[in-house]
Amino acid sequence: MKKMLPESELARDERFVRSKIEDRIFDPRGPKLATRNTGPAMMATDRPAAAERSRSLMHGIFVGEIQALEGAGRTCFDFDDDEAPFQLKLDMARQCWDESRHCEISIKLGDHLGTEIGEYTESTFLYAAACNPDPVMRLTGVNRALEGLAIDVFNTMREFGKESTDPVLEFCEDWMLADEVTHVKMGSDWLRRLTEKDPERRERALEFQRTVDKIFNLGGFRGEQEENPVQLARRFRELAGFTDEENDSLSKLAAESTEEARQMSELLAGNN
Amino acid sequence: MSDAFKARAPFAPWDRRELPGLFSVEDTARRVGNYKWTEMRLFEVLGGWVATVPELDVKLVLGRHTYHHAWHAELWHKRLPELREMNQERMTVPANDAFVAFMDSVRDPEAPELTIEKLVGVYRVLIPRLIAVYTYHLNGTSTITDAPTIRSLKFALQDEFDDWRDGEMLLQSLIDTPEKVDRAARRQQELEKLYIRSGGIAGPGSLGETAEEQGAA
Predict the structure, then answer these.
(1) Which tens digits make up the pLDDT trace of B17-37?
(2) Is the pTM of this model over 0.90?
(3) From the CB of residue B78, how many other CB atoms can be counted at a distance below 10 Å?
(4) pLDDT for residue A36 is more than 90
(5) Domain B25-203 is found in CATH 3.40.50.300
(6) Does residue A18 sit in helix, strand or coil?
(7) What is the count of structural domains for chain A?
(8) How far is Cα A246 from Cα A238, in angstroms, rounded to an integer?
(9) Which residues of chain A have a CB within 8 Å of the CB of B61?
(10) Nearest Cβ partner of A74 from B47, B71, B107?
């Protein structure tokens, strides 16, 4: 079996439908939707689309968990003993088990919310962050950027479960949130250990994380404004080892992404 | 009221543990190093395969089992320094080149259509042999002097039995035509022949002396 499996070769059964991230961003229906005054996009129970949004987000969580599982698994395999320390691989194996459980939880929560596997498309850009040939970059992209996003998403869903008095949703999201905080902490610890004597490599890794974070902001998907469906979970990010400075920087990046998305929508709407 | 200071036998009547065992400290370190190497190669490939199998139930089981074997590798890693082997990497080796060839073959299948081949290698060939070699070690080692290895062997064996059952049930649900029965059998034969050539996870004598060796003694 070869090392480094490209995202195009991820194996899926017939239910899954793959889409590209650019198809979503440049979806011609987007500008028309954006011109409708549908109020804030933040997940809230009083919104007419709340149920549909929660199902869609749950499906997104599910496919994200599969890709996180696959990414952690590939890190166990892709690197020889001299490229990645034994203990790092043990951590990644532990993460495989956690992500596998998260897939199981998300499938059952999908049933609970009324959706099913394949109802929404899957884009594999999360796994793409796990394809970096440098283990430090990969750990930073996956365990800090991707798993950091997972903290934000799970906290948003947990709050939504609380608000909608859905104890099953709230309970499960809280458990998954605990695991994700552990994964981010793992990534922060390994970044520090592996780059202790190589500040340049650390800076490159952090730059890679910023790039991945920017992609994961998904044109306003995440942020701290009412129009961001997923809210930045500062408290849990701090527990996971992100500094205030890092959280402020991510918030700024998210606000820029939201603004860019708004401008693009207006531009496209003007052209139509 | 009983007398707390009355002399009692150090071993209770039901404690039948004995001192003699089959393995010296050096033998044990060598075997433990072989176990660690094997469990490492196993957890790596299970993790690598997750992305290559389309069957969702198989994908999730492989994710879970990846950790089980990583944890076994960690147990053996921690045992090595207790066996006077301070350089753990030095002892983390395969039994011989033939065993490397066997493991390479177990790890070889990649295509998404080869789930049966992947699972047969692990759940019908390798894991039953891990169960055998761990059981031999458990039954043969000194129950007093080597108690820490026994504890780890028991933990690992419990996982191996559970994982073997998970894998075998997945295989039985995937093998649903006579052609697939043949595929699975071919794969098993191919790997078992390679395994025999190596003498086993701990090399020749993995399960004790061979009949030939016993005759020569």
Answers:
(1) 999 999 999 999 999 999 999
(2) yes
(3) 14
(4) no
(5) no
(6) strand
(7) 1
(8) 9
(9) 100
(10) B47
